[in-house]
Write a structure and sequence with these properties.
Number of strands: 7
Strand content: 15-25%
Length: 208
């Protein structure tokens, strides 16, 4: 989406797309969203993190605060069945702030392990996700990881830009490839994806 598009507008685009699919028999949809966090909630999370060993001065990055102040996380998975045998699909799972910092299966690990490896931010499938690399200097980098292909590439997006782009492309599978840092975006591929999204969802929320 354009730089003028706000994060709130992007999340609303995702909600509207989900509602549209839910009333269209050509789509199979799985959508769920968790409540957004207010400033008190975020301050409580930050205070909890600062009590963890090795995180005494930790501050939640502004981009992450912005994301979770608009949506507490969501699951957005769909298939366009009318395109058989080549079914078009989309998949995104913005994790909750709890899962971002410590999943249920990590109860025995120190939270400071966030510095050791990318933290899943958007889970695309069992083998593929977009993660956040945290640094002790407070910088964060988004990386696309495909465990099946054993690849990890940086994305030229911050978390807010990522969700705005996710909304523009309605989480259609493969859209992240347009924003790989090591190569320039392909206008042809970008337009192809835009056209595919436009065919499915119309002009609402799209950039001309």
């Amino acid at each position: 989406m354009s730089h003028e598009t706000t994060l709130a507008e992007a999340i609303e685009t995702i909600r509207a797309a989900a509602e549209q699919m839910d009333h269209d028999d050509r789509f199979k949809l799985n959508f769920e969203e968790y409540p957004k966090l207010n400033e008190d909630d975020l301050s409580e999370w930050e205070a909890w993190l600062q009590k963890q060993p090795g995180l005494g001065t930790y501050r939640i990055p502004n981009d992450i605060r912005m994301v979770y102040s608009v949506s507490g996380g969501f699951l957005f998975q769909w298939q366009y069945l009318a395109a058989k045998p080549h079914v078009v699909s989309g998949s995104a799972e913005l994790v909750t702030i709890l899962s971002l910092y410590q999943r249920d299966d990590e109860a025995g690990k120190p939270v400071s392990a966030i510095y050791d490896s990318p933290r899943p931010f958007d889970v695309i499938s069992d083998d593929e996700y977009v993660g956040i690399e945290f640094s002790q200097e407070g910088k964060i980098v988004l990386v696309h990881i495909d465990d099946a292909e054993k690849t990890k590439v940086a994305l030229a997006l911050n978390p807010v830009q990522y969700l705005c782009s996710l909304a523009e492309y309605r989480a259609i599978y493969g859209w992240q490839a347009l924003f790989v840092s090591e190569k320039k975006n392909s206008p042809a591929n970008s337009q192809s994806l835009r056209n595919q999204v436009k065919q499915l969802f119309g002009n609402k929320g799209l950039i001309p």
